[in-house]
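In the lab's daily routine, each protein ends up as an entry in a very long ledger. A line of letters takes care of the sequence, but it says nothing directly about the fold. The fold becomes a row of whole numbers, each drawn from a learned catalogue of backbone shapes. The protein below has been through that process, and both of its lines are reproduced in full:
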Amino acid sequence: MSRLSPGDAAPKFSLTNQDGTKVTLASLKGQRVVLYFYPADDTPGCTKEACQFNDDLSSFNDLGVVVLGVSPDDAASHQKFRAKYGLRFDLLSDPTREVMAAYGAYGEKMMYGKKVTGVIRSTFLISKSGRVEQAWYGVRADGHAAKVLASLGA
């Protein structure tokens, strides 16, 4: 699994959101994007992270930054998760985990002292031209949205 670094071209993606609409990296050209990968909808850490991105969403929007969450969950799961917590940003489905792997957000990790294969909680700030501005791997869910926002100078 290779990790992305600032300056790298962000891997292209075409994933569906909670409504079944395709979202592509190409369609976001000209906008800065926070693309964050998380293991599963409606689990404690993932809920905390999503709700904190949601709480800060107006600040991201004021800076012209689009926030997108990506997990292996399907559209129906994403719809329930968004409705339950009032999430106002798109959640994308990557059931094959191909996009996650391309970003280095899927692979071997330590969980409770054991090596397992799974989603590595990771976040990427992608520039208007489609390059990685910043990459965070193995992040802690709580407080991460604020760290990403702070990195934008907010």
Q: What stands out?
A: The radius of gyration is 14 Å. The longest helix spans residues 44-55. Strands lie at 14-17, 22-24, 32-37, 65-71, 90-93, 106-111, 114-119, 122-126, 132-137. The helical segments are 44-55, 57-62, 75-85, 98-102, 144-151.
